[in-house]
């Protein structure tokens, strides 16, 4: 069975011949280590983003045994850019602190510009056996980065105009991108707006409905393909609201907050669960430890169905290539149904 069919059946909660492996974000530097050569990136200059070309993406997906290929398209954010020791860029203080700064600095690329979609068009044209997943943010995380977390939380009480302006701008931009991508023939959407700390959501359910869900709806309405919702953190208090938004799958079930087996028992009859080989294991432990953790997930979750395996977050460059390959080889070896993990 081809990866596209496995993906479609998995999102519909139907039987598949093997545990689906979904990994929509593998860092560029790590992918070079995995493929053993330098890669020439495809640039999306309007977004300040680079991605693998379609042939390299397919080669990587086949090497890893993934059941999808993915294109990342997110609106620019407006904040300090802090560079870590490994070259990873982190957002610092947000620049859009008031309406004057919004008017002065906030400008998104035209989402109707055809050139924005040239890379995506190449993926759709050359995808062969794979489904193409569009990975994007809707609005909240981009607003969080651009306004700054503390300013954003305060603005929910004392600067509604700023929240409305930024959230509306991002949500409407993403809605257009999703609409165009769906019309072009993508097979799925993953949205990556984090909503929680490791201890609790960033806000109450009431505030979430008012300041997040209500604004996100314009983009959600355009998702006419399977939707994977990503959020880190402890999201118990928001689960009813997240499920009501209508995603087919939830990623990654943060291992800092949950035992995925318990989470699957509680929510697995309502949504596909995707996760969650720990990034810390992949980055700091041995191949043997990775194999053991991966086998345990397949053994305990595979027979239940409605589950896809993945890492516990976007896969960064500091993940050890030998560990990542240990995970994917374990999935290949033990992931076929009926599950038989010794």
Question: TL;DR?
Answer:
By secondary structure, the chain is an alpha/beta fold. It has helices at 3-11, 28-35, 54-64, 99-105, 118-126, 140-147, 149-158, 160-184, 205-220, 239-244, 260-267, 279-284, 287-301, 321-334, and strands spanning 42-44, 49-51, 69-72, 79-83, 89-94, 132-136, 188-192, 227-230, 249-251, 272-274, 307-308. It is globular, with a radius of gyration of 19 Å.
Strand order of the largest sheet: 3-6-7-8-9-10-11
Helix % is 40-55%
Strand content: 5-15%
- End-to-end Cα distance, whole Å, is 25 Å
Task: Output the helix-strand order.
Answer: HHEEHEEEHHEHHHEHEHEHEHHEH
Largest sheet: 7 strands, parallel
Number of strands: 11
Look at the helices and sheets and give the structural class: alpha/beta
Categorize the overall geometry: globular
- Rg to the nearest angstrom? 19 Å
Total helix count?
Answer: 14
Mean pLDDT across the residues is 96
- Uncertain runs: none
